[in-house]
Each structure stands twice: as C-alpha cells, then as structure tokens.
Design goal:
Shape: elongated
CATH topology of the largest domain: Immunoglobulin-like
Largest sheet: 9 strands, mixed
Number of strands: 37
Radius of gyration: 50 Å
Strand content: over 45%
Structural class: mainly beta
Length: 453
C-alpha cells in the first residue's frame, strides 16, 4: 500500500466548483484543498493513484467578510469533521481539527457592511485529511468533507454569523494500474566553490513509485560530479518508471566564490646596504598565490620589485586578488643603509695638530690649515681637496675653501674674518669624500688651543 502526501499541486483544480448549500448572507469560512495554487481551491484533482493507495492532503481555511452578520473580533473558529461522502470502496480514514483565529481586532462589526474589496483572514493552521483510494481501477472518484464551525468565546449573534453557507472541500482522483513516479529534488541552493572553475556538483535526487521495486532512479543534467561554474545553473531532472510514466522537475544552484586567495613565499624582512646616498634599487622574488576556484589569481606588490627606494625603512605590501574580487595582503620591511664606496681620513698638521678636537683662535686671524689626506689608506697628493666651514648646529657650509698640495701636505689659509659667528665645524674633503673635522672656536684671545679629531 502506497502512502502519498499531497500538500502541493501535483494536485490540479478541476473546472467545476463545489456547490454550497444555500446563499451566503453572512461571513463565510471556505476550505482550501490546494495550499500552493493561488486562491481558494474547493475542488482539487489529486491525479492518478494506485489501487488502495493512501493519500494525505492538507486543507487550509479562509474567513471572508460578507453581508451584515459577522464573526466577532477576537473570536476563534474551531473547524471539526462533520460528515463526508465518497464513491467506490475507498474511504476517508481520518480528518483532523483546525482552529482559525483569533479574528483580527479591525474585523467588521455586526450590522455593518464589508469594505470593498471584502477582507479575508487566514492562518497557517490546517486540517490533515487521510484518504484511501478504491481498490478497483476507475476514474472520477470524488471525496467530499464537510466541517462544522464553532465560535469561542461566545459573542454577539453567533448563530447568524455564517448564514446558510457551509465549509466543505472535494477531492477527485483516478485509480490506474500504474501510477507515475514522484520525483524528490533539493530546493534552490547557494554553495561555495570548491574546485578550480566552480563547484563539483554534490546533490541527491530520488523518486518514489507505487509499483516499481526498487524505486526508479532519476537522471539529472548536469549530473552529480559535474563541474558547475560560478553563477546560476539550472539542474533539470527526470525519472521514468517501468511502465513508461514520467515525472520531471528542476532546481537552481548558485555557485559563489567568497574565499580569498592564499599568499605563499612572501620575502622576509631584510636589511641592505648601498653606496648610493639616494638609496638603492629594490629587488625581490614575487610571492606565489593560490585560490580554490581561480587557477591564476593576480599578485601585485607596492613598491614593485625594480623600484628605487630611499635610505631607511620601506614597507612592501603584496596583494593577491582572484577573479571574484576576493583579496589577501601581506607585507615585509626593507631597511636600506648607506655605506660609502671609499673611506677618507685626515691627519692635521700644525697649528691644528695636537689639539683635543677643538681649535681656538682670535677672530679675524688667518689660520694656515695643513692636512694630509688618505683614501682607503693611500695618501692622496692629487685630485680635488677643500675645506668646508659649517656653523655649529648647522648643515650648510658658509665658506668653501679650495686647498692646494705642496710641501708634502694640502694647504688652505682660512681667513676667519669671513666668519660672523664664534663656533664652527671645519671639514676637509678630497674628491667629494669627507676625511675629517675639527671644531673652531673664535675669541679675542691670542692663545691657541689645538686639538685634532
């Protein structure tokens, strides 16, 4: 014996309508035998079923305002099985009760006409009807169920609330030797991509059949195991039983990619040196990126390898971006330090030599500066040498004095009358390399204090 639950329309409304006793002169409670199809379906075709098949149908109810007699606001309508009729040796096995209410507070009061369009009220409560089909093959078998209606709590003129209307629903079915299979499909779904290009389809489609054992197996396109790309794909399935009867349906699968790519091989923090006081050219291997769905996510770094960066710390940020716009970033630091290509040193001669790094002289005196200059430990007797005089605490020279080589040393007469202050740093340079300094303090004294640094 096959049990089927028909709460949706496989279930087709017939052209005729159930005839209600009398004429509505008050509110009505109508039974809806098809909860999927819009409107109130009072006569519902249940399709072809096997002999003696058991069917469960869910019946809803709709209260409609009419004429001048009405249910009272706040009342609940109890709907109970009252009577039934059917043809053949089938049977109505059970009918459950249902409650409709409470009636809304703005429901039309007695002796008042209904607004237009007429208000309706319904709830999710249903009456479950269990039918058994006749054992003999045939068509047009009809089952009709009548419901009683009881209002609670007691209200005003309850006996007139319904007039002569009735609450009833009819179901029709045909009994055949072979019934179509029933296909069971997933609902529409949204899934995260799990492989390159999209999602490996993983869903289950089954079917029930009253006569076939085992039940027939549905076929779907695309099938489980197929690759579904990003976006919406409609999966269409069908099934046929051994007698050639079929059922078909479809559902949508939306494949999304919300997972950011991964970055691997990020360079570590590093320290580099340069002989260029403006900085150096930054070079590093680009990191790799991988993504579940995108086979080739893009990788970019800022600043890029090959860029010129200055002295100090530069933070390099690399970002991987997939085709869906998901991205992930990481960074590393590069510390650039300046190291001169050549090192110059100075050996000061008299009168500067022999001091403790500070030389004092009377203002306006000309100081005969004598110095031997060395580059990478080798004494230089040619090239370009000069003295640069910078105010203490300053950075720019106020005097730049060329020196000449003679007598086994470089010579430069420093005229202090050109200097307005009292404290200076005197620097000797050769071919642009700083070789050494001494501090110059100008006073009105004649005594000289010499210090070499």
């Amino acid at each position: 014996m096959q049990l089927r639950t028909l709460g949706r329309s496989g279930v087709l409304a017939t052209a005729g309508l159930l005839a209600f006793a009398g004429v509505t002169s008050a509110d009505s409670v109508r039974a809806d035998g098809d909860l999927v199809t819009a409107g109130v379906q009072r006569v519902v075709y249940l399709g072809e079923v096997a002999p003696s098949a058991e069917i469960v149908v869910h019946v809803g109810f709709v209260l409609t305002c009419a004429d001048l007699s009405h249910a009272d606001a706040g009342q609940t309508i109890a709907l109970d099985f009252e009577s039934s009729s059917h043809y053949g040796d089938g049977d109505i096995l059970s009918v459950s009760s249902a409650n409709l209410g409470p009636v809304p507070s703005d429901w039309t009061a007695d002796d008042e006409g209904c607004p237009f369009p007429a208000p309706t009220f319904t709830t999710s409560a249903t009456s479950d009807v269990r039918l058994r089909a006749p054992s003999a093959v045939g068509t047009g078998f009809t089952y009709t169920i009548f419901y009683s209606r009881t209002l609670s709590p007691l209200g005003n003129a309850d006996d007139a609330a319904w007039g002569r209307s009735s609450t009833a629903v009819s179901f029709q079915l045909d009994v055949v030797d072979n019934t179509p299979p029933i296909l069971h499909l997933p609902t529409d779904m949204t899934v995260e991509g799990d492989t390159t290009g999209g999602w490996t389809a993983a869903f289950t489609a089954t079917a029930d059949d009253a006569e076939d054992a085992p039940d027939p197996t549905p076929s779907c396109q695309p099938a489980p195991g197929d690759l579904l790309p990003l976006g919406v794909t409609t999966v269409t399935c069908s099934v046929a039983d051994s007698g050639g009867l079929k059922d078909s349906g479809s559902f949508d699968v939306t494949v999304v990619d919300t997972t950011a790519p991964k970055l691997t091989g990020m360079p570590a923090d590093r320290a580099v040196t340069t002989h260029d006081p403006s900085g150096t050219t930054l070079t590093f291997p680009a990191p790799d990126a991988s993504d579940i769905v995108d086979a080739s996510p893009a990788v970019s770094c800022s600043p890029a390898s090959g860029s010129h960066v200055g002295l100090g710390t530069t933070t390099v940020t690399c970002t991987a971006t997939d085709a869906s716009g998901n991205h992930r970033s990481a960074s590393f630091d590069v510390v650039v330090s300046y190291v001169p290509l050549h090192t110059a040193t100075a050996t000061w001669g008299e009168p500067v030599a022999g001091s403790d790094g500070t030389f004092s002289a009377n203002h306006s005196r000309t100081i005969p500066v004598k110095v031997r200059l060395f580059v990478d430990g080798t004494e230089r007797t040619d090239g370009t040498a000069d003295l640069r005089v910078v105010p203490c605490g300053g950075s720019s020279p106020v005097v730049r004095l060329p020196m000449t080589y003679g007598g086994g040393r470089w010579n430069g007469p420093l005229d202090t009358s050109l200097l307005a202050g009292s404290c200076y740093t005197v620097r000797a340079s050769v071919d642009g390399l700083s070789a050494g300094t001494f501090r110059l303090e100008l006073t009105g004294l004649d005594a000289l204090k010499v210090s070499k640094r």
